[in-house]
Write a structure and sequence with these properties.
By secondary structure, the protein is of the alpha/beta class. The chain is built from nine helices and 13 strands. The chain has a nine-stranded mixed sheet, with helices on both faces. The two termini are 27 Å apart.
């Protein structure tokens, strides 16, 4: 599939912001997932050598306390008969933990959600629901960029609980340092070190993050246009990171929002709160940073997001 370069994409009328709406055809529900063709999935399967499987999901109880004002998950196990049991989840937020942001998550002002859909989610009908992704899964050749290890190697590391923007040039530098090439259709996985820090934090330290409401501070990708341009020109299928928002927070309104630039304007799915620690250890041991990536979102009709259920197969 021949795709235009970022610099060739059209602008929104009256804005200096580019978009990919219409590149994959009218009424598209998949965005950059269209880059993950059957041929590329078949090629990605050749990344499996030992058959070892590595979960990329945070422990189900995390984050605890929940972030962004969400209520704690309540799991109840109930007897349904003499020899049978059932269970249910209350206060279940599909975007609470390791998850995908769907195209109904964020819009760009009057221009609407990805593709120009201007109705609010309850009135959208079938458009842009997470169930479209669930029907085919999010899978392909995974590439891990271990930014945390690179920053530790080159400058002593950073505090993942402080705002720190990872630039496009740094992503290129990490890829070069690891001698890995990002190919069209790849699922780009970015380890910032946030999940590592969070898992070792005390409950009191986690509570500080939760009490920050919508303004916690943490490391993540820069929201600058140069980041969006790189991700588009790499023609990735999706981007997943180990922090709560992929981009750094709380962010600078003068720079803008990476969610808007990437998820809305370019149609690149964003995964959040992944756990890449064990995968990073195995990749570093073999000096091999690619694998077969498999994620199965829930087929929630009209869903805004979904648990990711991700696994790397090596």
């Amino acid at each position: 599939m021949g795709l235009p370069a970022f610099a060739e994409l059209p602008f929104f009328e009256g804005w200096t912001e580019r978009h990919s709406w219409g590149v994959y055809g009218p009424k598209d529900d998949f965005g950059a997932l269209n880059n993950v063709t059957p041929e590329r999935i078949a090629q990605a399967a050749t990344e499996v050598r030992s058959g070892e499987r590595v979960s990329l999901q945070l422990p189900p109880a995390l984050p605890d306390p929940p972030l962004y004002g969400r209520s704690p998950l309540i799991h109840k196990v109930v007897r349904t008969g003499r020899n049978s049991w059932d269970d249910r989840l209350d206060c279940f937020y599909p975007q609470r933990a390791t998850q995908w942001d769907g195209f109904r998550h964020v819009r760009f002002r009057e221009f609407g959600f990805y593709g120009g859909v201007t109705e609010d989610p309850p009135e959208m009908g079938d458009r842009l629901g997470i169930h479209h992704w669930a029907h085919q899964g999010v899978m392909g050749r995974g590439v891990l960029l271990d930014v945390a290890a690179y920053l530790e190697h080159t400058g002593g590391g950073v505090d993942p609980f402080a705002e720190r923007a990872i630039t496009a040039s740094e992503l290129r530098a990490v890829a070069a340092h690891q001698t890995v090439t990002v190919r069209p259709g790849d699922i780009l996985c970015i380890r910032t070190g946030w999940a590592t820090r969070y898992k070792s934090a005390s409950y009191a330290q986690r509570a500080v993050l939760a009490e920050a409401g919508g303004r916690p501070a943490f490391i993540g990708l820069s929201a600058a246009e140069s980041t969006a341009a790189l991700l588009w020109d790499w023609h990735v299928g999706a981007v997943a990171a180990d922090n709560p928002a992929v981009e750094s927070a709380p962010g600078d309104p003068r720079v803008g929002s990476l969610h808007r630039r990437v998820l809305v304007q370019l149609g690149i799915p964003l995964g959040e709160l992944f756990d890449f620690d064990e995968l990073a250890r195995r990749c570093a041991y073999e000096d091999r940073w690619t694998f077969f990536f498999v994620s199965t979102p829930l087929a929630i009709a009209g869903g805004v997001g979904s648990p990711a259920n991700p696994v790397a197969i090596r």
